[in-house]
Amino acid sequence: MFEKSEAKLTASKKAIDEFVNDKLGLSVHWGIYAIIGKGEWVMHVDKINVREYEKLMVSFNPVKFNADEWISLLKETGIKAFMITSKHHDGFCMFDTALTEYKITNTPFKKDPIKELADACNKYKVKLHFYYSLLDWHHPDYQSNWTSYVRYYQGQIRELCSNYGKIGGFVFDGWWPRHQFDESQKYFIPKGKWEIGETYDLIHSLQPDALIANNHHILPLPGEDYQIFELDLPGENTAGFNTTEIGDKPLASWINLGGGWSYIKDNRRFPEVDYFLNFKKRCDERNTFLWLNAAPMPDGRLQPEQVKILKEFGEALKHEREK
After folding, report:
1. How would you classify the pairing of strands 169-173 and 127-133?
2. Which one in 129, 142, 275, 310 has a CA-CA gap of 20 to 30 Å to 187?
3. In tens digits, what is the pLDDT along the chain, a chain of 323 residues?
4. 23: part of which helix (H) or strand (E)?
5. Beta bridge pairs of residue 169
6. Is 198 exposed, middle or buried (0-12, 13-18, 19+ CB in 10 A)?
7. Cβ atoms 213, 170 nearer than 8 A
8. Spatial separation of the C-alpha atoms in residues 87 and 69, rounded to whole Å
């Protein structure tokens, strides 16, 4: 379903210019799916029903999570933006939302990691961004009461804009208007309008410096501040789902540090740092921001292999700047 945006607001020019100049960010895909260790789509791929999947909450206790370690690593690497999955397609919330009980503060961990990350980002002067999935495989209103679901997700966007200090932006996902869904994917299909322009204006009114992108694989809509290419350079479609059209907004590429978007417990193959340095060089040639993506483990630590890549990456960039 295609939907127009009638958004009237955009991020401030200062924030957009800073984003373009910062050139580099790190995202993480982290949620209760890490316990299974087969990727963030495991609920769909393995056909796990809602009630069975909910049981993962009981064993999610990332006691080795340390927000300061994560963000200080970024600072050391020269990365100036950080993005975390506040809610993925499985509907589980990695923040202390008041709008559902399906959240990390109701697990044995009890704490709000996004609050701790927001504090660390403020300490190290790293801009905090949120990934948010519009698609929701868990919330009953997604299937049965669309008006109520839109109120729910917009309410969560308001919470994210209001409860964590100044934020750098949002990347939305889960709405792919060019994709044709088959019978096994019918619960992916939105049942009405997202009121997306209203959502964008809500963000820009509450957080004037927050940049918005949407991983919908079409040209940017009014209210979106940059165009993102998933697993591709701008204008390329090796992944098979990106548009090859380039709009008039700033550009970003988004790639993994190896293995998948989220933790894959059987994966032990990670590219050498040269792969990422070469990819960044190509991004720089196209004046394109690069989002790297890491996949934290169920216990809350970043994977050692990915930490090693980031440290080597940072050292290489430092040497380049010193030439």
Report:
1. parallel
2. 129
3. 689 999 999 999 999 999 999 999 999 999 999 999 999 999 999 999 999 999 999 999 999 999 999 999 999 999 999 999 999 999 999 999 999 999 999 999 999 999 999 999 999 999 999 999 999 999 999 999 999 999 999 999 999 999 999 999 999 999 999 888 988 898 999 999 999 999 999 999 999 999 999 999 999 999 999 999 999 999 999 999 999 999 999 999 999 998 899 999 998 789 999 999 999 999 999 999 999 999 999 999 999 999 999 999 999 998 877 76
4. none
5. 129, 211
6. middle
7. yes
8. 22
Take residue 49 and report the two structure tokens written for it. 């029903």
CA distance 278 to 255: 13
In whole angstroms, give the CA distance from residue 88 to residue 81.
20
Residue ranges per structural domain of the chain: 13-322
Give 13-322's CATH code, choosing from 3.40.190.10, 1.20.140.10, 3.40.50.2300, 3.20.20.80: 3.20.20.80
For 173-211, give the secondary structure using H, E and C. Answer: ECCCCCCCCCHHHHHHCCCCCCCHHHHHHHHHHHCCCCE
